[in-house]
Amino acid sequence: FYNESLSNQDVKQLDRKGVFHSWSAQGSLDPLVIKSGSGCRLWDYEGREYLDFSSQLVNTNIGHQHPKVLAGIKAQLDELATVAPSHANYARGLAAEKILARVPAGFDKVFFTNGGADANENAIRMARAITGREKVLSAYRSYHGGTGSAIVATGDFRRVPNEYARGHVHFFNPYLYRSDFWAQNEEEEGARALQHLRRIIESEGAESIAAILLETVPGTAGILVPPKGYLDGVRALADEFGIVLIFDEVMAGFGRTGKWLAMDHFGVTPDLITFAKGINSGYVPAGGVIVSERISRHFDENMFFGGLTYSGHPLAMAAICATLDAMEEEDIVGNAERIGANVLAPGLKQIAERYDIVGEVRGLGVFQAIELVEDRESRQPLNAKAMGQLKASMVECGLLPFVVANRIHVVPPCMVTAQEAEQGLSIISDALGSLKR
Ligand code: PLP
């Protein structure tokens, strides 16, 4: 395991021999080898250092190898490494208590899962059970996970080859830069997106719709901060038609936007909140559904037909407790807010002023995106070859970026320092400057 003589090549060969990778044709993969990490830094087997501006899959909000989280997991490991979900376990109860303390009033239970997809599966299941209805409305610009209903609720291209679950309907969510509603400003975009959603509800038949599932701030789809009033409008539609509102906070939640939950920016409360990723930075896989009192009361009397062997796994729970405590003690959420407002947003604005291929920069906290275009007039997305070149040159300069389609998502850990944030921005800027077209 800890063989000091291993090289990058050894590890890559072993990977290519036996590991089947996610979302890929397996034949031509060339995975970057990573051995170890600390904070925002990662190293390979040959001592090459990377600044992690991806937070892996936007999940290591607390950074790599945080000592308090490691200590929490180790303490739990010494006491009990695993236990069935039917038992009462202190770490699990404490994790639920700490999560509920960070959400608005009106939520009183947490159902734990192994990650974000199964959090959404179970939120959908609860919504269907409580309404007796089947359909789930979700946005085209979204990602909700790779499993049965979650991947069909997803709007992006990954849904299409996986459309086996039934009862899913999609709608267009607001995205002013590429408005589907011919909108000229935020207000028009929000209002017209709401009118479109109303028409979808009416056309599908409100009495058939169990849930509206929405990423509070769509992440993989491009970090699309919703216009003022949009989420209030969705809440009002859900109330008008008796639909359960689910906010997917898997990527945006637990510090990423500079608040505990992304929904805290908008003052809108859903009926169910799903989470994963930043809840414990993925040190041990975990996710879950935060259940409102109303839905919770339904399941006081009615059986919940769902469960997982590892629901509330004690190591994951210990990681949650230690992560939330450390984030609080070290004001990591405040740091995400300050770095976003004082370093990333102004730095990205400068980058946008410097390079014509930047169409738009946007985001909240350490959840920002640079959208690249062929030219500002047509807004045509920058081609895949150029995006590949950009990615390679950032990696070459020691930055691990999160590149999606024609965008660079600027998503370092929430504990990133101002100096690290500036270093990352400067590598991004140099890569844009050296792009040959
Ligand atoms: N929901 C959102 C918003 C996500 O970004 C993701 C993963 O990227 C998921 C759900 C799925 O989470 P997981 O990969 O842990 O199943």
Automatic annotation (TrEMBL):
Pfam families xref list: Aminotran_3 (PF00202)
GO molecular function: transaminase activity
Keyword Transferase: yes
Cofactor entry: pyridoxal 5'-phosphate
InterPro entries: Aminotrans_3, Aminotrans_3_PPA_site, PyrdxlP-dep_Trfase, PyrdxlP-dep_Trfase_major, PyrdxlP-dep_Trfase_small
Keywords associated with the record: Aminotransferase, Pyridoxal phosphate, Transferase
Family: Belongs to the class-III pyridoxal-phosphate-dependent aminotransferase family.
Protein name: Aminotransferase
Lineage per the UniProt record: Bacteria, Pseudomonadati, Pseudomonadota, Gammaproteobacteria, Oceanospirillales
